[in-house]
Design brief:
- By secondary structure, the chain is mainly alpha-helical.
- The chain is built from 16 helices and two strands.
- Strands 1-2 form a two-stranded antiparallel sheet.
- Helix 5 crosses helix 6 and helix 10 runs antiparallel to helix 15.
- The chain has one domain.
């Protein structure tokens, strides 16, 4: 089947739209149309229609037998089965439950496009992450320098003024401070990855400044788990990138990375919320920690209802709303759904890691694959107390990381086959 210029052009547009939706979802507020709708949800259906009519789909260049796609589809199926099982036991299925299931289904077109057009998607992802990350830097600069900007940002993105709360924790472009921290370290990690391999020294310097700015703003959110995630993911990133550097540059890069992590910890403990929080936790008087422990006990009661399939979203009953995503997943989707989710995460990380370990990669592919590896590790830690996957806004992060991993792996495979 011949693919014409128009089809090639439309595939480029599709990749740009998909990457733009995922990257911008983290820095744009929700759209309110009766219910809060994010950009990735609005774009998902048009992308799915595009896949159905595009000629290249008939050539089966996308293999549904791909481990990541297969596990992903099984996980989506497990969420549907869990909801049906909950309804069969006499539970109620409300509209928000259906939205919860759709939230996972909507990622399929993004994953398929990254497999169909790997190189185009990688180029689009690199461009849109750079643009959206730069926009985030501008917003952070405005927050730090312009009087009143903090209140404006908080009202736009969270609907309430987090800045005026007694704990003085800004949320930046997140709906809450913890989510704001995740968004900040996500883009900070991207710029840190760029700073290691950008061909232009000017671009490297700019990337270092952007990464440092976002890291500093992340400490202002006071997210304790977020700080641990940042430090861990930076160490992973340094270990990956140091392989392509000379011995001297490797030492310099390692020292710089460890210095940033150390500075990050020092800065974070200058904020009373973090330092006092750790002290209170050791004394057993930290309300945030105690609430999570109480909810863990609630999870055990809900988990006993259906250990294998879980209770479904069950938002009407409110029995599956927990801060820890691991607790939330095992309660909603049981042992089967949680096992599939962990397998999906590990499979995605494996693909990104295998690509990042190759020595003859294009710099752009290595920047993105190393970023994907490090961010996935940070996400695994963030999920212990924060939302990295379940949040409608933050869910774009693991999706674009999975798309990068799939596209990178697919590109390497096609390149070796001479396609």
């Amino acid at each position: 089947m011949t693919i014409g210029r128009q089809d090639i052009s439309s595939s480029s547009v599709a990749c740009l739209v998909a990457a733009s939706a995922l990257a911008s979802n983290l820095v744009s507020p929700s759209i309110h149309l009766g219910v809060s709708i994010n950009i990735i949800s609005l774009v998902s259906l048009p992308l799915f229609i595009f896949l159905l009519v595009f000629p290249q789909i008939q050539r089966l260049r996308v293999r549904l037998s791909s481990s990541v796609i297969a596990i992903y589809l099984l996980f989506v199926l497990s969420t549907v089965v869990s909801a049906i099982a909950a309804f069969a036991r006499g539970g109620n299925i409300v509209f928000s439950d259906l939205l919860e299931i759709y939230k996972y289904i909507q990622f399929l077109p993004y994953l398929m496009i990254s497999l169909l057009f790997p190189l185009k998607f990688l180029h689009s992802a690199n461009k849109t992450l750079l643009i959206c990350g730069t926009l985030l830097c501008i917003l952070c600069t405005a927050y730090l320098l312009l009087p009143g900007a903090s209140s404006v940002l908080a009202s736009i993105y969270s609907g309430v003024n987090h800045i005026d709360k007694s704990d003085n924790r800004p949320s930046f472009t997140g709906t809450d401070p913890n989510l704001g921290c995740i968004i900040l370290w996500f883009y900070s990690l991207y710029f840190a990855s760029r700073s290691a391999l950008c061909a232009s020294k000017t671009m490297r310097f700019c990337s270092v400044l952007q990464s440092a700015l976002l890291l500093y703003c992340a400490t202002l959110t006071g997210s304790r788990t977020g700080i641990v995630s940042i430090a861990t993911s930076l160490i992973v990133l340094v270990s990956i990138h140091s392989r392509k550097l000379s011995a001297l540059n490797r030492i310099i890069f390692a020292i710089a990375g460890l210095s940033v992590v150390s500075l990050l910890v020092v800065l974070s403990f200058q904020h009373e919320y973090v330092s006092v929080g750790y002290d209170l936790a050791l004394q057993g008087q930290n309300s945030s920690v105690n609430v999570r422990l109480d909810r863990f006990n609630e999870m055990q009661d809900a988990f006993s209802i259906s250990p294998l399939l879980g209770t479904g979203p069950s938002k009407d009953e409110g029995i599956t709303i927990f801060d820890s995503e691991y607790i939330l997943l095992i309660t909603r989707y049981g042992l089967i759904g949680t096992f599939l989710f962990v397998a999906l995460f590990l499979s995605t990380f494996s693909k990104a890691y295998q690509v990042s370990m190759l020595s003859d990669l294009d710099d752009m592919v290595l920047i993105l694959s190393a970023f994907s590896c490090a961010a996935l590790v940070g996400g695994i830690i963030a999920m212990t107390t924060n939302n990295f996957v379940v949040s409608y806004q933050a869910s774009a992060a693991p999706c674009i990381l999975a798309c990068i991993a799939l596209a990178s792996s697919r590109y390497i495979s096609l390149h070796r086959d001479g396609s």
